[in-house]
Amino acid sequence: MYRFIHSSDLHLGKGFGNFEGDLPGRLREARHAVLAKLAEQARRSGADTILLAGDTFDSETPAAHVRRQALAEMKHHDTIRWVILPGNHDSLQAAQLWTALGSEAPENVTLAVEAQPLQLAPDVMLLPAPCTTRRPGRDLTEWMDGQSSSPETIRIGLAHGAVQSFSENASFADIIAPDRAGRAGLDYLALGDWHGALEIDPRTRYSGAPEPDRFKHERPGEALLVNIAGPGAVPQVTTFPTQSFSWHTLNLHLLSGEDAVTSLGDVLPDSRERRQTLLRLVVSGHCRLNDRTRLATAIASATPDFAFVDFDDSGLFTDCEADDLDMIDRGGALREAANALLAEASDHTRSAAERDIARAALTRLFSYAQEVGS
Q1: CATH number at residue 166
Q2: 319: CB partners within 8 A, 6+ apart
Q3: Sheet of 308-319: strands edge to edge?
Q4: Which residues share a beta bridge with 310?
Q5: Computed over its alpha carbons, how large is the radius of gyration of the chain?
Q6: What angle, rounded to 10 degrees, do the helices at 352-373 and 332-345 form?
Q7: Which of 241, 262, 283 is the last residue in one of the domains?
Q8: Domain that residue 313 falls in
Q9: Global pTM?
Q10: Is residue 205 left, alpha or beta, with left meaning phi > 0 and alpha meaning psi from -120 to 50?
């Protein structure tokens, strides 16, 4: 039996410039911490090899400290062999990066920079397909078909790129043949590029990113423990968690008259989990003006508990009646302004954007009136 860890898309050094404060630094540190988590799982499981299927680094020019500290962490786990494959973000076109890695890598780190067999263990052959450029324009795994080996050899492929339409940045020419494992007689094909764990067939899998970096994939960050009993045996694959941060999208659909604040509380994660959660909250449906104001206040109150909150209420429509406007004012300039905004928000001869602006202004006016009156 041969046992190993399959991971990919660590994207070490990712900037996260779309966030503020200390969050970008925390997210970068979480990516570095994945290395120790992979090593710990390898030790617990009796695996002595970790395959990184591309995009170990987020760019072709990672900062020296990102590169050196990653290698130092791998060296610390010196009983484990790390195999690093160039991906599309850190392709071989980055000659300076791979030259530096070649001179700095410790003995337990192997750089899979050539399309030629690597011996992982007696009767275990690795067939890597390093990305030559960001968009190579061809199936880099094709060479595996013609690489012969003895019948007693376990054959493992390692590649980075798209199978069918699963890539996030690929042209048709870059697509890896979905039946490559069968064509090349591979016992397992370890893939990187798609950030969510995905099984193409029993011998072909994407590990997914061990630390999420967007709201696109609902699966948590994880990696794969792969057991192959022998040549021709179907691999036994189990997932294990690796993430520090959760990127979670919550869809909250409200009905008019429903208590929006109570409904919000029912779907939010436990308070202890919030510090490590990036939340995208999408609210849709209908609610009364007072409920909308209370909902906005509740979300603003909960936001500091989270690492990040993105609140989207563009699909939430405000049902407003005369008694709602009475809570702003029964007459005078404020009531006239409220009447005018309600008319604009309900005027379907106006554009959707104009109606949204009027609804938002009416909600703000209501909130202001409540603050002044309290």
Answers
A1: 3.60.21.10
A2: 256, 286, 287, 288, 289
A3: 246-254, 277-288, 308-319
A4: 280
A5: 27
A6: 150
A7: 241
A8: 246-373
A9: 0.87
A10: beta
- The residues, ordered by sequence, that sit 6+ positions from 15 with a Cβ below 8 Å of its Cβ are 24, 28, 58
Condensed to tens digits (0 to 9), the pLDDT of residues 236-250 reads 999 999 999 999 999
Together in a domain, 88 and 159? yes
Residue 285, judged by CB atoms within 10 A of its CB (0-12, 13-18, 19+), counts as middle
Query: Dihedral angle at the C-alpha atoms of 246, 251, 257, 261, nearest 10 degrees?
Result: 10
- Report how far Cα 146 is from the mean position of its chain's Cα atoms: 35
Residues 160 and 186 occupy one common structural domain:
yes
| β strands within 67-136, DSSP E | 81-84, 109-111, 118-121, 124-129
SS3 state of residue 208: coil
Residue 133: alpha-carbon gap to chain centroid:
23
Q: Pull the structure tokens for residue 341.
A: 């905004």
Tens-place pLDDT, residues 6-60: 999 999 999 999 999 999 999 999 999 999 999 999 999 999 999 999 999 999 9
Any idea how long the chain is?
Answer: 374
Q: How far apart are CA 38 and CA 77, in angstroms?
A: 10
d(CA 58, CA 48): 25
- Relative orientation angle of helices 95-104 and 64-76, to the nearest 10 degrees: 40
Q: Are residues 121 and 150 in the same domain?
A: yes
